[in-house]
Structure formats: structure tokens, C-alpha cells
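Case study.
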Amino acid sequence: MDEFDKKLFDMAKNEDVYTPAGLNARVREALDGLPARGAGLGRTARVALCALAAATVLAGTALAAFSAGGFRSVELWRGRDGDDSSWYGVKGGDYRYIPVEELSDAVRKIARDNPVADTTRDFKGKNWSAAQELSGVTLPANDFLDGLEIGASYLTVSANKNGPTRLRFWQGTDGLWLTVSADAYTELMSGVDIHDSYGFDGDTELYAGEYKTEKGLSALTVQLKPGESDDGLGERTPGTERCLAELMVGGFKYHIRVEVDGVNVKTGDEALETLHRVLDAFE
Amino acid sequence: MKADSAEFERIVTEYAPNMYRAALAVTGSEAAAEDAVGEAVLRAWRKLGSLRDITSARAWLTKIAVNCARAQLKRGREISMEELTAEPAAPEQDRSMELRDAVARLAPDRRAVVALYYYEGFSTREIAGMLGVSPGTVKSRLWRAREDLRTLLEG
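After joint prediction, the assembly is written out as follows.
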């Protein structure tokens, strides 16, 4: 061991690494949310749901203001233990069991009980970070995406009087959200693979489509098929498929994400099927 | 290994700071490190059967946390418009820089080996097993990391 090596060890040893109080809460939250162990455990479908306030609008020129409503992120987890028991939890430790049929009521209660504040430009929740939003700037989506790696957070651009944005992407800490304006929506509704059009990196592919719920609501769904990724144990596995959906219900915009670890056609279909079931649960 | 939830909770609670410290070294972000630890707890629970010896729990959990942290890096980070359009900063020497700050400037693969070697005290062979690479690769990354750290810390 040379002198510099010894110095590095000493620096590491003496470094006052701040261990935030939030770490204990985060660990507690993770422990409280663990699915029951049992036969068949091996895959967890997670349903993440984000409720936005009413003032956000998708269509075309109405994007003139992303606005006055607020943003509140909630996350519902659904565990699959192979025994048909489903559980949901609300981030923050208030985990409880909610059947999927009651999901829409649960979301409404969450939105009602958690008054949102005005939208801020930089809304960052626990385990979730959204791209910083600017207003008053208009950029064509392709110009904006050129040269950016898929790993970067994409900024969103609010519409101003010069015209609406075309696309808005949010790179969360564990997922990709896609929100579109009317003109891009039309393109995506055709089911076009927008991989090349919007500069996504390498292995990532997005397939968009429209899903009509049982009650006639129209939801934009996106199936994200990334490339290989690490499963947390240094083992290369195909990327986690995610199915995303966005729909407007009762003045609220909902983002829903279903993620299933491991990728094969069957798994991806299950994620989409699960997403459709959740969507069907909305009035 | 058959461990009940109480035992799992015990080892997670005990080694969470180690997991966090390693994840922080990899990600350079407290928020991302917290997220990585949370994710690692879930993954560890799902893979509990792969923990063959409770005495290896620290290494096992730290490995998962490091890999979750690396996955965090791949998923990206929040950037501002200013950062997006700014010219890249020239590397500069800062004698008062802490090791953690210097490590944050390393390439992600090198951050992981530095975290596991200098902060957590694992051997190169153990690190190789944790990261799924050869011991030679670990040594190579460590060597390059040391050169980068030498530049950052000593000029």
C-alpha cells in the first residue's frame, strides 16, 4: 500500500458521512411495504399512480398555462404473492389493503385528503423527481431532445402565447413518464414507434396506444421496453417493462405506471393487462 | 437461507448506513442514495434465498445497494436548463475537497469500486464477486480511480 492509498483509506475513514434522518424513514417504509413471503413470490407488479390537479390540460392550444393546479404524488403498490391477495399502500407509511375495484375511490380520497399547493416549477417528491418545468419558452421537441441521452431528465416547456409544446417527458427516479400535447398525441395514437422520431437512446422503445375503459374513458397508454439492465445483483437481465397510462377523470389527471420485473412477451402482456384492469376501475 | 422477517429487518436496519454510504459514493446524491437503499431493501427481500450465510449479510446488502445505485445513475438525474446549456467545467484541483466530492466526479464504474474498497473495506476479490466482474477488472478500475483521485485531490 503506497502513501496515497493510505491517504485514501484515512480520508474515507475520517469522512463525516452524513446519514440523513430520512434514511431511517425510507428503510422503515421499505420494510413496512414488503410483500408477504410465500410460494410463487418472485415478481411484483407495482402500480404507481400520480394525481395531478384539475387545471392541467392536454389539448393543443389550451396548454397556454400549465397551471394553477397543484401536484401531489402518491404511490400505490400492488404486490402479487401468487395467492390473489393484492395490497396497496400509500407512500408515507400508511399502507393498507385496497382491492383494485376500489382503487378509484382510494385515489379520490387521497386527492381529497391531501390538498395540493400551487404548482411549483420544481416539484420533487420522495422517490420521485420531475424535470424542472419552465414556462415562457417554446422549443420544438426534436431540437430539445437532440444530443440528450436517455438517462437525462428532459425539461418540459410550457406553452406560451407562441404555441403549445409538442412533448413533455419526465424522467423520474424509477420510471419514464410521457405526456403529450394534442398534436403529438395524434401521432402517438397511431401506435407509431416513436423511438427514432424522438431520439431515444439505443435499446429503448416506446409503443403508444389508446385504451378505452369499460366506462368509455380514453386513456393514453405507453409500453416502455428498455434494453438490458441490472437486476440489483449484478446480473444482466432484460430491462423492466413498464406500461404507463394517462387519463383524465373528474377533473383530475392520473398517471399510472405498472412495472414488472423481468421481460418476456408474457410478462409484458401481463403488465399491460394489469394496467387495463386498473384503468377499468376508474369511473 | 431461511430467515424470517424479523431477522431480515434486523440486518437491514443494522447495515442500512453501510448501504447508504456505498450508494452515496456511487450516486453522489443523498436523495438518489436513499432511493437506492429503499429499492435495495425490496430486492434483497425478494432474493433472500440467495443469502447463504448470515455473516455475509453486510456484503450481500451492500452489493445490492451498489447495484441499485448504479441503476439509479443509468436512469438519469434531474437537470436544470442552466446545466443543460452550460459549457462543461474544466477539471480543477481543490485541495480542500473531500473524498466524497472527488469520488462523485469519477466515472460510475470507478465510483462503485472506490466505495466498496475504501469506504467499506472489501477486498478486490470480494468486490469482483459483488459486481460480477473479474478481480483483474476491479484492480484496473481501482488503478484508474486512484489516478483520477490523485489529480483531483493533489493536482
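Observations recorded in class. The domain at 5-75+97-154 of chain B is CATH 1.20.140.160 (Butyryl-CoA Dehydrogenase, subunit A; domain 3). Chain B touches chain A through 56 residues (CB under 8 Å). We will return to this complex in the next lecture.
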